[in-house]
Structures
1.
Amino acid sequence: MTGKITPAREVDCVGLFCPMPISRTKEEIEQIGIGEILRVEADDPAAEEDITRWAKRAGHEIVGFEKEEGILTFYIRRMK
Amino acid sequence: MTKILYVQTSGTDTPERLYAPFVLGTTAAAMDVEASIFFMIRGITAVRKGEAEKIRLGSFPSLAEVMRQAIGAGVRIYICEQSSHLLGIPPGDFIPEGTIAGGATLNDLALEADAVLTF
């Protein structure tokens, strides 16, 4: 499913821990247009729950998520 | 559904402070209240594998038994793994029922809860 998603921008949060993945994701999503997709990679295990809740509260939509060998990949559509 | 959040900041060095969130969480579930416990700072020492089995106070059952009851009743467990860096202890091997989480999750849980209690 995520193979069809073309992100407008990517942010590498591998090696970063709470709260940095959230802070970096917020900074980067503000650099793309509404409706475009940000791809976020992280390896902080807390990021799965944190980014999911951040997106919901910030009003953005997670349109794809993958977890492979400790690397979490989120595809987040900027909604506003 | 009504929600309540317990924040557990004290750990195995003060075992008398560890029972309350599990007992209250089990009670909340019986009251049809959705209960979550967020373990952070020293609180994370209580949810490392094998620790709850070692704690038994007064005439209470072991902490492991009370924890099992709470989890069985549907109480959700969140663990701030990063607190281990703060404490300078090795990252724990935590109970598998726990969800590793961080600041965004705690803020979100607190904001969506109808009440927050800290132990």
Note: The interface with chain B takes residues 17-19, 22, 44-51, 53-54, 56-57 of chain A (CB under 8 Å).
2.
Amino acid sequence: MRRRLPWIALVLVVGGALAIGTLDTGGGARSDEERAAHLAAGFRCPTCRGQSVADSDAPAAVAIRSQIDRQIDEGRSDAEIRDYVLSRYPRSEQVPPRSGLAGLVWVLPVAGVVLAVAGLAVGFRRWRVVADRRGASEEDRVLVERARRSS
Amino acid sequence: MNAALGTAGVTLGLAASVIGALTLAVGLRGRRAPLLRMGRSYAFLVLGGALLAAFAMERALLTHDFSLQYVAGNGSRSTPLLYTFASLWAALEGSIILWSVVLGGWLVAVVVRFRDRLSDPLVGWATLTMLVVAAFFFALMLGPANPFKEVAGAVPADGPGPNPLLQNHPLMAIHPPMLYVGYVGFTVPFAFAVAALVTGRVGEGWLTVTRRWTLVSWGFLTTGIVLGAWWSYEVLGWGGYWAWDPVENASFLPWLTGTAYLHSVVVQERRGMLRVWNLSLLAATFSLTILGTFLTRSGVLDSVHSFTESPIGAWLLAAFAATVAVSVGLIGWRGDRLRSPGRIDSPVSREGAFLANNVVFAAFAFVVLLGTVYPLVYEALKDEPLSVGRPYFDRMTTPLALTLLFLMAVAPALPWRKASGALLRDRVQWPAWVGAGAVVVAVAAGARGLAPLVAFGLGGFAAGGALRQLVLAVRAARRAGRPLSAGLVGRTNGGMVVHLGVVVIAVAVAASSAYSHSRTATLEEGESTTVAGHTVTYLGATTETDDRKATIRAEVEVDGEVRAPALHEFRNATQAIGTPSVQWGVVEDVYLTLRAAPDGEAGAATVGVLVMPLASWLWVGGGIMALGTVLSLLPGPRRRRPEAEAPAEVVAPVDEPVAPRADPAPVG
Amino acid sequence: MGATTTARAGVRRRPALWGAVAVGVVLALFVVVLATRDPATNRTVDSPLLGEPARALAGESVLDGESFDLRDAEGRWVLVNFFATWCEPCRKEHPQLVKFAQDHQVADDARVVSVVFQDQPEDVERWFRDNGGNWPVVDTDGEIVVDWSVSGVPESYLVDPAGVVRAKIVGGVDATKLDDLLRRASAQDEGGS
């Protein structure tokens, strides 16, 4: 028990710090500016390759941002704005959907890791079974007996 | 004259590599040592040909010989000297010249290093493989990517110069060559892997060689990647250092599999296991370099780096297919006979930790590869476009990165073979306290949010683990009467320093991703805005015009210092190119961009302000990683035989390979 | 060392071979996929507008204040040109637009309309004054740019007399090529493609 004490203390310290650290995560409705920035970051800039609409200053990106701002002012929802931008720039969504064939891109890596870990687990079990089965050979037993008797 | 010289160089290189490969093939088939030894001369000829071509191209660029299409498209009289020199690798054809020079260099290094073993079939096969690869690149230069093609018609008087983005920063002169030395360098371990598969010799000698050479290439590649991130941050002006752009991913993928190899090869040295897996990793690393080159040069993917598409895509794809076919074929044919019957006793052991490391790195590489090529696969199947952007990569790689931090913390404390829970708990105790301390300090400093705090905690834990190992090594060195520094060199200790560098980078990434503040403000002259405690005042703008571009510089005062982000309007570009102004700080960087020029001299300017905490730690971390790589390569203390180790005893860090194991009889 | 492994063929006995086969098959398929892809730049010529009725385009001309609406032009071909005075290729293609407009002035079967974005009205006026062209030039705050899925300038769209977008031209127009497009598209309509 005494050896475990420092570990209990550690868990308490870290837990406490994390609790404080994750307490006030703000929450609540986003401001218009935040909504605009968040929406813009979800689209890829049509011309500049690799930058999001929020980051880029290409004319197309600036135009899209101004449209997002206008539609937020008009009161449209995030989903409606996203649909509109996608209807005009079909390849620009930064993140593929979670379902269907596109969703595979989310599923495959996770499946891969699960398979690999399962494979390793099977491997370890088989190695242990082999080791147990081998056990001690007859010569080893005789050796040990002799040593025990002589000590 | 330059065209003739250059073409002569390329032809020499091609001839030398083809004839050299044939000579070695005959020598290997008939086991004729004199033929095998000739491999050395051919290697030198290959390097000579490449250097001649490079010299010819540089001469053409520096003398503004616009009769060459490459110079006409990339050179200009008004480009400064350094960038004219660097325009050798500014575009596709020239960069292949650089590739062949670097490959020639590695070839010569191999034949010089192994000059006493040239008649050994292992070395023979490796040299043969490298010559075949060299032949491919020279063939590219005589075929679809000819840098010495002459201009049809009248010779222009001047050229447009390299892409404006490539003239902005002296890093342009260092980043590509560094990257290439590392990238191309992976050809060497691949060649030895092929040689090992063909000759069936996967034992001692092959192992040490490939490990050290891979480490050197890996070190250069790491530095090249970090420099690329720095360039992205300082030059491109979008306020970030990594966009998961296909070209960035192309350089990152071989780094991931290379790192996995550097760890699992230690298991092979110690326990003789994972031979075929290591061979596969080396084959994968090299194949990824070819695939990466294909993806970025063929134009199938949009990218910031995209060169124009050309028939080179088909050639590179063919090279990738051939590389994969050879690797898969050899492993399928030979692999099972080379497998070792060993086993790993327990998952809670250093072998177990290295296995876990490999699983995570393999998953990491899979995620990056999948995300990069999935748009192509999806489009092939559904005929609809799909894009996979930064948020995907960030989300999928974060848990993997955190797992790696955890492994980095725990693995140095794990003994080989088997560990009891009690032993492990003792050893990781004070690193765990370092991790806890990191979380407490971060929370006390105001950091909030679960993900970054977990990252800080694990980072501290990992740093503690590495430091513990270093402290023990230094103490052991003192006890043995050696200088302090002996505790810092050698594979394990150097590796711990590299881990420290990784932790610094991980913490920097976590902080700059989670806690950055940004604001875009349109300011009149004299107007200020405040971002994260920094007062930013727009003072005015100046415009300079020269024959290349018009530059609008905005003077912005931040915390008392005047900085000047700028916009350049180049004559041949449709969009203005921004130059950010970055104010480095230990705690945070203040990153300024001029997003929209003022209307007229006295108008309002749109200034972007980005405050990035700990961003400068990225470059410090990169430097530490480079230092650690150098330390790793320096000779360390002699290794004790592994049988002499008791699990509970603290061992002096070991470096040199174990007592030699007998090679299995060469197969076939 | 334990019992020697007999060389029985079977998945468990020869994992390297079966692993290699599996990996080989996947990679072969992958290579096939890569080999059949079009270069990315070709995709820029695709557009969700092609074959669809043209989107809204209306506004006041910067040059003379007259209002313009694309729907009023029905019955004629319209070349919608997205343009900016600070864009070098736009400036280069301008004479071709002037030529195209002049060629079709008599028959009045085709018109040009330009859309500018992020440009100063004075600069636009000056440009048209110095370089010719008397068609409507509509300014936009971005709405028309986004509505027409424009990625950059210059981009031009050819709208047929029925109001359907028939072609997208990126990177600079050529008057002769435009006429060709016009002729081919008309022939297609008449032939009842």
Note: Chain A touches chain C at residues 46-47, 58-60, 62-67, 70, 85, 87-91, 130, 134 (CB under 8 Å).
3.
Amino acid sequence: MSATPPRRLRACPGGPLLVDGDVELTDEDGTVHRSTRPVTAVCRCGASARAPWCDGSHKLLAARRV
Amino acid sequence: MRLPTPRGPLGHALHALLARAPETDTSPTAPDTLRDALRGADEEDRALSLWVLHELHYRGFDAVDDRWEWHPALAGVRHDLERELEERVRTRFAQAWTGDLPAPADLAETLFTMAETHEGPSLARHVERRATPEQVDDLLRQRSLYHLKEADPTSWVVPRLAAAPKAALVQVQYDEYGAGRADAVHQELFRAGMSEVGLDASYGAFVDEAVLSTLEQNNVLSLFGLHRRLRGAAVGHFAAFEATSSLPSRRLAAGLRRLGYADAMAAYYDEHVEADAVHEQLAAREVCGALVAAEPDLVEDVVMGAWACLDLETRSALALLERWEVAA
């Protein structure tokens, strides 16, 4: 029997962390968030209005820094 | 779906042919009526006729025999209309693109930069802050042409790709198609939203209202999707589309709520805020990036396809703002 392949996580340069498969994430306040997308993007910039998930806001931060 | 109202001689000649059974026309070339009409057709007539020819590959038309889809009498006209459209898009790109093309490894970042820096008015910003309900209804009717077959033109590309870009593209398409749930298919979410706000949600219902730029947007998507040769352009267009969706979708949802639209319509855009924040990464890095890693010669077509998407969106925004008499 082959082992289940490890869960894939990919960090996007300047962007979110992509996670394959269902995700349950407990944030700092103890709130539990669930995502059942085939792939979920987890916010890494802290600016998302839909935290803990990415909403593309990192692009606005990058634009402001320039 | 019924055939749209023709916008000129080509549409009239084409619809007259489509009203017949294909076996009554065994000629392998287009009848003279169609050839003559093509020469006299203006841009709108040509765009709508190409849209009709492409739709034979999607859902077809009531009272039109499905065998017309691959009939040789139509293939020549479709070929001429597509060649003209492709040349127009490539010429616009050649005039606008003055920089170097990226190395394959830098392509994803180039695509994001293009999407972020492309200049043009934002319809989403207008909807968020100032649009009237009449303008929003008009926008939804124009957009319904694509959203009711959302993701379909890109699905044509799947069998043309090698394993890495194929696996990534299908991951996005699976999400677009509801991850196995019919009621979560994005086309269905839009249809539900249209119904909730009292607009006709049937496929192709508003094609007679479609402005030239709306027809051109849809035709370019089908052109890129239906030709294996243009697979680079198809995935480039796809990446640019996804990369300009998350943030505008948030604005569109806010505008719909400002105007008190039914929640199902705003929810369609809510869904795209999160979904497309994932899709844009997969599209640029894992679809386009993987494609050009294996086929570096396709970099130019990927960039051209992405640019075409952004340019057509700008043209569409300008056309609608002008129609609404709003300063861009």
Note: The radius of gyration of chain A is 14 Å.
